[in-house]
Amino acid sequence: MVEEQEEIVWSGKWITAKRRGRWEYVSRARNIRAAVILAIDDGHAILIEQYRVPLGRQSLELPAGLIGDDHADDTVAAAAERELEEETGYRAARFEPVGEFFASPGMVTESFTLVRATGLTCVSEGGGIGEEAIVVHRVPMGEVPAFVAAKRAKGVAIDVKLLLLLAGDILAG
């Protein structure tokens, strides 16, 4: 297979629209990546809910943040630590990278590194910075499927990464 030249169609501060042959796709600008945090505290999943402009509604998600957006020498661990506390108010004793994943590889080149956070301590209310207005949810693991279903019924978007917490119930039918 002959690899076609990548063409930048449009570029902004945060994203770049690209074309390679007939394929159109989007990348994060400046090789920015994301850290997604799987934080379980004493049998409770730490989830966040925030308004997402592209969706035009609230979204239920795992805590996450960008790597390298404002810090040129940023690392996965530093971003995970910073974002977990900013968004949720929790600090973790340990961060363990699980691996790199791609959520929508047919449309976006963005990857995220999933990080498991353990040894959690709540140090503040969280809520994000600036105008993020993040709502923090501490949900017992056994109640996650019902919690997600209730949020979905209220019109809240459900981030695909929540499948990590729902897989057992989905597979069991």
Task: Describe the 3D structure.
The chain is α+β, with helices and mostly antiparallel strands and 173 residues long. It has 2 domains: 1-30, no CATH class; 32-172, Nucleoside Triphosphate Pyrophosphohydrolase, CATH 3.90.79.10. Helix content is 19%, strand content 44%. The strands form 2 sheets. Strands 4, 5, 6, 7, 8, 9, 10 and 11 form an 8-stranded mixed β-sheet that branches. A 3-stranded antiparallel β-sheet has the order 1-2-3, with no helix packed on it. It starts with 5 loop residues before the first strand and ends with a helix.
Q: How would you summarize this macromolecular structure in one to three sentences?
A:
The chain has 173 residues and is an alpha+beta fold.
